[in-house]
Amino acid sequence: MMKKPRRIAILTGGGDVPGLNSAIKQVVSRAQREGIAVVGIRRGWGGLINYRPDADEDWNRHWRTELTWSHVRTIDRTGGTFLHTSRTNPGRVREKDMPAHLVEPGRTYPADLTDVVVRNLEHLEIDALIPIGGDDTLSYAARLHQAGYPQVAIPKTMDNDVYGTDFCIGFSTAVTRSVQAISDLRTPIGSHERIGLVELFGRNSGETCLVSSYLAHVDRAIIS
Amino acid sequence: MPFDIHRLAEQVARDKRDNPSHYAMVTISEGAVHLDGDIVETGEEDAYGHRKLGGVGMWAAEQLKKLTGQGLTYQQLGYMMRCGPPDALDRMVAMNFGNLAMDLLLEGRTGLMTALRDGRYAAVDLSAIVSGVKRVDVARFYDPQEYRPIIRGVENLPMFLR
Predict the structure, then answer these.
(1) Same domain, B131 and B89
(2) Where along chain A do the CATH 3.40.50.450 domains lie?
(3) Chain B contacts of A207, Cβ < 8 Å?
(4) Using CB atoms within 10 A as the burial measure, which of A37, A169, A194, B146 is most buried?
């Protein structure tokens, strides 16, 4: 069991969903009350392979930022993530995604940059990390956990397909928007006496389509 | 689970005929697969080996139009589903997941993921994420012949049906 952290970091990876900013704001609010400093890692795991201990602020400010109450006070009024996001997987970095400063002759791809991630977290003096993501982003969190780095992950995805939780941030709004859109589309489709076919996001889980179709009372639903 | 476009076309034509307002509404998941087809993906793989899904709806739309002889409007909701601010439920869970993450860190508990289990906030092993795949319980909540959700017997089920 680790002792109380003095400094933590938070990042958001994968597709943006509504609610990420609310989670970030709550973490910063709680941390500040407890006297814990928070660093926002920008562009998901990308921030932790692009941050350079030897670089100046002009470079590093693009990859991490200190977070205080004044930074997060208004962020929950919008969706998405104000830290930005990426689909970077530091465990499998392709040659074309390799940060220039890490390119070395003889390196094989995809490259595992977990040592870079750990080194950068240590340089930033981060005691624990809060990664927010879907199953892809959090599969790398599990990899980093194996490497011994303390983390508490938060699941998000509009597909609601992260194993281990009944609910992920973003699922409810995705269903709400879908039900609203299907109901709204009934006016032109009804007026013109047509068949309406609505394609919904939902990767391979099918839950978003199933629940939206149930709630909007559609005639037929093809789930994945 | 693959679907049969011919069966769907017959059902939808009947739905439209039987509807007093003379229209029918159908949804299709971007990951749906036709009996004779593959999953429809575009673009190149991301770092996790996934390509963008989407396009099966366009194909199904053309087929339904041809098979039913009826007018059809196809709409891909796509990014509109995750635009804008969160609804109250996403906001509540996001804030409580943030709260829970801080509770756990303050207690020195790591290697965990915040979760909702049976309607309760919980902490689960971070390694759980890669130990399984979360899928709809098709046999329980979906009729693959009629292509409809079948939700019943909900007493004692968790709020998020599972």
Answers:
(1) yes
(2) 7-155
(3) 134, 136
(4) A169
